[in-house]
Amino acid sequence: MTTKTRRFDIAAHFETDEDIREFLRLTANSGATSDFIYALNTAVRAKGMTEIAARAGVSRASLYKSLADDGNPRFDTIAKIVEALGCKIIIS
Known about the structure:
Probable addiction module antidote protein, Cro/C1-type_HTH, HI1420, mainly alpha, Lambda_DNA-bd_dom_sf
């Protein structure tokens, strides 16, 4: 008997904007920079690439490229994405 599995995608389990904010907050406070970029990618997929790209004022292709595993987004791009997700970058 073969067991079929599929990859777990947390983006499918976010139910509210607060879920996304908490996920980003936890990752920003405990992870590496690459972890935060990955978390942004996850959050953007949960909300919809097209919607977030429009809100951030970037093309959908540029958003995909910035948040790819080998992407290297500029800080202003990260700030636009965070704002488009309804969040703020706060230093405390």
